[in-house]
Write a structure and sequence with these properties.
The complex is a heterodimer of chains A (467) and B (492). With 467 residues, chain A is of the alpha/beta class. Chain A has helices at residues 2-9, 25-28, 32-50, 55-64, 72-75, 90-94, 98-106, 124-134, 158-173, 195-208, 224-238, 249-279, 291-304, 332-340, 459-464; strands spanning 80-81, 139-140, 150-151, 183-186, 214-216, 285-287, 315-317, 344-346, 348-349, 358-359, 366-367, 373-377, 389-397, 407-417, 430-437. Chain A has 15 helices and 15 strands. Chain B is of the alpha/beta class and 492 residues long. Helix content of chain B is 36%, strand content 19%. The chains are: A alpha/beta (467), B alpha/beta (492).
Chain lengths: 467, 492
């Protein structure tokens, strides 16, 4: 039986991290139904391996009464909510109680973090640096809600992580990041521990052909400390008690610079792009940035009469939605393509919590490869059948997570077509084209109540989250 | 679930039913409703000419009170068809369980009690000032002052339907013209009351100065049409930060905004509560009542409970015990005060589930159907404190309760206190920090506690302000020093 499965899918259940080693093509030529049995084997094994060594999973399994996983359904109660990756008390960050934070994180991974030497560590960034040296690859979220999630990835997953990133990028852009370097512009920070930036730093500098070919708006890294303390610092500043927080003066200075930088950001991006337009006129390039960055640049460019001109094979790599960008053009993609004179817009669908990425096809759908097991839920958290077209809350198991639990339920609402009849020719469940946030909206969009429930709006965080 | 309710616009004594031009809205809980297109009825909603308020100005307060009292007699759920309809929709939409909602509706006539209304308006504004020009003392008798009615827009909250009644009563007592923008989670209560006004006397000045309509929150076109100095003098905005912030966009000098913005309330419990079984049970009942009444949908409901305690294991064990008793107490609350709910709060449960994995930091008990607690094992509230709902409270040990003041601000409306001896130490610092009201949690009798915390003398401040005083215009008639109006005329 095992042999028959192997022959049909050619996926080795013992090492999902290598599934992409021969390229994305064979995975996107494979029906998800044929991969299911192998995926289940991996899921079963992962649960066996991790149920006693990842404390948070052990606790959850115990609470849910799950002792073994034989089917996808068995594992559904074990999906981690995004809150699990930030279930530490915020006061640990405020008091820089790194030891407690470290032991909290230790409950999410098989790595023994009690062995990490925390001597002299005063900041979150220094802690994450130290964890990287130890062999971790922790990525944190943008903390839009004022609290950072920490995803406990490690070097063990590095091979798979890089393959996922590069192959999804190759599938969606047509340019091979492994051996075909391309001049890259990214209007943001150069790196940092925020997951997306960390990933770009880890993989895109090589893909660009070296640091001198990877151009970023800011030369420095985003600071986890600033992002995690932003809300607290703002509150303290409002009370005139910022100095009472006892923060490193360098951090306070960095905050001021970041605020000033944030105010200049739109002009800086313009200048950044317009300089590059001249310097790399006629060259083949890859342009990154949010939808908003690209639209704004195009608008100003048209206004000022700056017209870029790039070589064939250039592409735009973007994602992340409009994030509050006001009044985008109806066909924003066409608008941006026209302006930049670039035909290809590469996008992938993925998230910090998952190793896999779904590349977007020519029909604008994101195809999920077998190294991600997607699940959709309705509002009452019932699993939606995996047939036809379904819309619900997106969750998945990540078979590539070896040292942490890869079951995750996201806050995205997506539509998945399970029928594998996309005109583009790729197989796999396809997502999209629209991805929205899953919110408990049950009609009555202006329900008013006198009890406070909404998060206070924080302009500083809003700015910071646009990395 | 797919009923469509017709919601007419009430326009100063007239009922405008949804006709050809009706628009349909999605309400809460699957209900839908149709109303006449409010964009086409702007002039039915606003009073463009403020001098038209003279009819109400000339009506003595006692006549207004008599009329309202007559209305109050008709506001009995059992024989008022309008209220029955509004009750049915509120039940479907508002999130309050049937016995609680019934209790709230049963209370409506009480809000129209003539003695209480007279006392309310006399304490807060002064009947003399509403009915006539009141001369100054002695040498200043040439200066007279009068409280004059205004044109008010009320963006009401729907979580507790009394807001609709309160608004109509307050508007009439201040001799003001009131436009009520009904909320989607209670689109009919104000309507039902106004239809009862019309039934009694469609031509009464009170009836002729109330308009009720629903339009979508954030409808800029509507707000731009209505919120103009020429049409509105005062706005009272209840609830959601977004509704308050939205309306601020249209404010100009000359329009006064009273923002009754969202509140988080809390309780503080002294160490005495942990010293005996009896004290613990008494405190737990108090916490359950103040957190659980109206199923924690109101601003006065406690969401966080700070308990005077150290954070060592032995002390924490007692705090956890108190938490356990609170969960038990939720389940013993009389159903007129609080009930289990039918629908889970998925977001909150996810938060609870996530911190439940962290034994070192939190102890979690209960759920969002029957109520629960999250006990912090250190001196800080949970990060999701602003999502606490469905009778779930966060219990936080604090070695020094004075420290709690750092979490108090304008949004801290009501603080429950146990035992009473704690009050003296906390009262002044809390008042300075922003707290608007302290109530007692002592006694152990749920019904009595509920009754007591809802019994205030007439005309008390609300959310730290005096809305009625603020909603009239104080006008001066300053005459030449020798032109003093004879007392007989002044008193007329």
């Amino acid at each position: 039986m095992a042999d028959a499965v192997m022959a049909r899918t050619e996926l080795d259940p013992s090492c999902p991290g290598n599934w992409l080693d021969d390229g994305y093509e064979r995975l996107l030529a494979m029906s998800w139904r044929d991969a299911e049995e192998v995926q289940l084997k991996v899921l079963r094994r992962r649960f066996e391996e991790l149920k006693d060594s990842v404390a948070a999973l052990e606790r959850l399994a115990k609470r849910e009464g799950v002792t073994k996983v034989d089917s996808l359904e068995d594992a559904l109660p074990l999906l981690f909510d995004h809150r699990v990756y930030k279930s530490y008390p915020i006061s640990l960050i405020e008091n820089r109680d790194i030891a407690k934070l470290n032991s909290w994180l230790g409950r999410l991974t098989t790595h023994d973090l009690s062995k990490v030497d925390l001597t002299g560590i005063q900041t979150i960034d220094a802690w994450l640096d130290r964890l990287d040296e130890f062999g971790m690859l922790i990525g944190h979220s943008t903390g839009t809600t004022g609290k950072l999630s920490f995803i406990p990835r490690s070097r063990t997953e590095y091979h798979a992580f890089r393959a996922c990133h590069n192959e999804a990028s190759r599938a969606s852009s047509g340019v091979n990041p492994w051996n075909d370097p391309i001049e890259t512009f990214f209007p943001g920070y150069r790196g940092g521990h925020q997951m997306a930036l960390k990933m770009l730093f880890l993989f895109n500098i090589d893909a660009a052909g070296g640091p001198e070919h990877y151009h970023t708006l800011y030369p420095g890294n985003i600071s986890a400390d600033l992002m995690s303390l932003a809300g607290r610092m703002q509150a303290a500043e409002d009370r005139g008690e910022l100095e009472k927080l006892g923060l490193d003066p360098a951090l306070l200075k960095a905050r001021e610079e970041m605020i000033a930088q944030g105010k200049r950001r739109e002009q800086d991006i313009e200048a950044f792009f317009f300089t590059l337009f001249e310097k790399f006129r006629g060259k083949r390039v890859k342009i990154g940035g949010t939808f908003g960055d690209l639209i704004r640049t195009a608008r100003t460019g048209i206004e000022k009469g700056y017209k870029p001109e790039f070589g064939p094979g250039s592409f735009i790599a973007t994602g992340g939605g409009m994030k509050g960008f006001k009044d985008p053009p109806e066909d924003w993609e066409g608008y941006v393509k026209d302006y930049f004179g670039i035909e290809r817009v590469s996008m992938v669908y993925g998230m910090s919590e998952g190793t896999g990425f779904a590349p977007r096809c020519s029909e604008k759908y994101f195809h999920i490869m077998p190294h991600t097991m997607p699940v959709l839920f309705d509002r009452d958290m019932n699993m939606l059948p995996r047939v036809g077209t379904q819309t619900g809350r997106f969750a998945f198991f990540d078979p590539m997570a070896e040292t942490y639990w890869g079951g995750f339920i996201s806050g995205d609402q997506v539509t998945i077509n399970w029928e594998e009849d996309c005109p583009c020719g790729w197989k796999g469940p396809r997502v999209g084209p629209v991805i929205t946030r899953f919110a408990e909206m049950e009609g009555g969009d202006d329900k008013i109540s006198c009890a406070g429930t909404a998060q206070a709006y924080n302009e500083f965080m809003d700015f910071v989250s646009q990395v | 679930m797919t009923d469509i309710y017709s919601i007419p616009i009430i326009a100063r004594g007239r009922i405008i039913e949804p006709g050809e031009d009706a628009v349909e809205y999605q309400g809460r809980g699957g209900a839908r409703f149709r109303t006449p297109d409010p964009h086409k009825h702007i002039h039915d909603l606003v009073l463009g000419n403020p001098v038209l308020l003279h009819d109400l100005m000339d009506t003595p307060v006692h006549e207004i009170v008599d009329f309202l009292a007559e209305v109050g007699k008709r506001l009995r759920l059992e024989d008022n068809a309008y209220l029955q309809e509004s009750f049915a929709l509120a039940l479907q939409a508002g999130g309050l369980a049937e016995p609680i909602l019934r209790g709230v509706y049963d209370d409506l006539p009480r809000m129209f009690d003539p003695d209480a209304m007279s006392a309310l308006i006399d304490k807060s504004v002064g009947i003399d000032y509403l009915d006539g020009w009141v001369p100054g003392d002695g040498a200043y008798a040439n200066c007279r002052v009068r409280a004059v009615g205004t044109r008010q827009l009320h963006i009401t909250a729907g979580n507790v339907p009394v807001v609709a009644a309160l608004t109509i009563v307050r508007g009439a007592l201040t001799k003001s013209d009131v436009l009520i923008k009904a909320p989607s989670n209670d689109p009919l209560t104000a309507n039902a009351i106004c239809r009862s006004l019309i039934d009694i006397d469609a031509g009464h000045p009170v009836t002729k100065h109330v308009a009720v309509a629903y339009w979508k929150g954030g409808d800029e076109e509507m707000d731009r049409q209505i919120v103009r100095v020429s049409r509105i003098d005062k706005i009272t905005a209840w609830g959601g930060m977004s509704s308050v912030k939205h309306i601020q966009k249209f404010l100009t000098p000359g329009i006064d905004l009273t923002a009754l913005n969202p509140k988080y309330s809390m309780s503080v419990i002294g160490k005495e509560a942990l010293e005996s079984e009896e004290a613990m049970a008494e405190a737990a009942t108090g916490i359950a009542v103040i957190s659980g009444f109206y199923n924690q949908t109101a601003c006065a409901n406690t969401r966080i409970v700070y308990v005077e305690s150290e954070t060592d294991d032995a002390s924490l064990q007692k705090v956890v015990q108190l938490g356990h008793k609170v969960v038990e107490a939720f389940n013993k609350l009389p159903q007129e005060i609080s009930t289990p709910v039918e629908k889970r709060n998925h977001d909150l449960e996810a938060e609870m589930a996530a911190v439940a994995l962290e034994d070192d930091f939190y102890h979690v008990e209960g759920n969002t159907l029957t109520g629960g607690v999250v006990v912090s094992k250190f001196s800080d509230r949970v990060d999701f404190y602003d999502q606490l709902n469905n009778r779930v409270v966060n219990i936080v040990p604090m070695p020094n309760l004075l420290e709690v003041a750092k979490w108090c601000d304008d949004t801290t409306q009501t603080v429950g206190v146990y035992p009473e001896s704690l009050r003296e130490t906390l009262l002044d610092p809390f008042a300075l920090a922003g707290v608007q009201r302290l109530v007692s949690l002592t006694g152990g009798d749920a019904m009595q506690l509920f009754h007591d915390m809802h019994t205030l003398p007439p005309g008390m401040p609300h959310d730290g302000i005096e809305p009625l005083r603020r909603n009239v215009r104080w006008v001066i008639d300053q005459r030449a020093p020798d032109n003093v109006v004879p007392m007989a005329i002044a008193a007329e």
